[in-house]
Design a protein that fits this description.
CATH topology: Jelly Rolls
Strand order of the largest sheet: 1-10-3-8
CATH architecture: Sandwich
Number of helices: 1
CATH class: Mainly Beta
Order of helices and strands: HEEEEEEEEEE
Shape: elongated
Number of domains: 1
Structural class: mainly beta
Largest sheet: 4 strands, antiparallel
Helix content: under 10%
Distance between the termini: 42 Å
Length: 144
């Protein structure tokens, strides 16, 4: 019986993911982070992944959602604080305040690090114009 239990334990340990000691999908010494803008109306919506002193933040994904504006508009959401510089996306707001704009949903595989330890990663969606009542930015990653 002891041999069987030992064999089952050995089998179970051999199939655990490499980071089984940490959050699934993150390195073992990482702490998951999220950042959210909340809902904003015709203003910049920003989500921040906040660094702690001496540690580096990584972004693993983001989602940008919103409703339309009185007039169509095109803006350039950005992700700043990254190794390699700023990322910029193109985003269009449709004419119609009760219509849904396209969603930007992007996963970074592998996750992208901040340019330096202690540097925040900030995702910003510029204001979408008059009539826009709902814009949100959400991001997730980890600090290590």
């Amino acid at each position: 019986m002891k041999r069987l239990m030992f064999a089952l334990l050995a089998l179970a340990l051999s199939v655990l993911p490499a980071n089984a000691g940490g959050e699934l999908g993150y390195p073992t010494d990482a702490f998951p982070l999220t950042g959210a803008s909340g809902t904003v109306a015709n203003a910049s919506a920003a989500a921040t992944l906040t660094a702690t002193a001496g540690h580096k933040v990584y972004i693993c994904g983001l989602v940008i959602t919103s409703t339309g504006s009185t007039a169509a508009a095109v803006v350039a959401p950005t992700v700043t604080g990254l190794t390699g510089g700023t990322l910029t996306f193109a985003y269009a707001s449709v004419a119609g305040v009760t219509l849904q704009n396209p969603t930007i949903s992007h996963s970074f595989i592998p996750c992208v690090p901040a340019s330096a330890a202690g540097t925040n990663i900030v995702i910003t969606l510029p204001a979408l114009g008059a009539g826009n009542t709902n814009a949100t930015v959400n991001a997730w990653g980890f600090v290590q």
